[in-house]
Amino acid sequence: MNKLIFIGTGAGDSGMLKQNINTSSLYFEVNGLKFVLDPGPGTIVNAKKYNIDLTKINGLIVTHPHPDHYADANCLIDALRGKKSFLIAGKKCLEESNNYYPCINKFQQSIPEQTIAVEPGDKVKIGKVTFEAVKNNHLDCGLGIKINKIGYVGDGSLEGLEQYYQKMDLLIFNAYLPHNKKMPGIHTSVDEIIKFLKATKPKKAIIQHYSQEILNAGIEEQAKLIQEQSGIKTIAAKDGLVEKL
Length: 245
Fold this sequence. Notes:
Blueprint: E1 3-8, H1 14-18, E2 25-30, E3 33-37, H2 43-49, E4 59-62, H3 67-70, H4 73-76, E5 86-90, H5 91-94, H6 106-109, E6 114-118, E7 123-126, E8 129-134, E9 144-147, E10 150-152, E11 170-177, E12 188-189, H7 190-200, E13 205-208, H8 212-217, H9 219-230, E14 234-236, E15 242-244
Parallel strand pairs: 3-4, 4-5, 5-6, 10-11, 11-12, 11-13, 13-14
Antiparallel strand pairs: 1-2, 1-15, 2-3, 7-8, 8-9, 9-10
């Protein structure tokens, strides 16, 4: 069975320090591949709560070099010593730069059978799964990822990204700001998500990666508002949610 488990659903604000909810981390089983996307701090400990055996994963995806997206990556890579193992990461996660020293160190990069640095437009096919890196508006280092017909839009503004996510089976949004709140260009708002869903028309949407502000506003209420105004079924993910794909 193809499935997605939300190991965590929290963002990288003060909530990452408080750990009232687990920091965001997504575990996938798709067409025979098992992999983790953006393993924030606590991924290794929290996966055990949901009976996820991280020693069995085939791969790891890291979209950008912010700690709420990569903190457990170097440890998780120790699971990727077998054949057909892979690491797919944004180039700024793997290469030295002025602002981001490689968040995945050089030794760890050598462990998987394949370590692949990606930029928007790059496609990687592993088995029966196609991974495509997508343009993103989060500061100077973001990246979105499409996994077959599943879209993980990533952090940042959604402006101008509609063309890349047309008619997907599922869109996953990092919902940082509640209705009527804005942080231009840096984080995703509920109002942007409504507009985006009207333009892209996926079969379903899931929100996660919550800031303390959106938790205070009520994630169920925000998901209901998105669904009512967009016409797209929308789920507010919680830690441990299992979603069939």
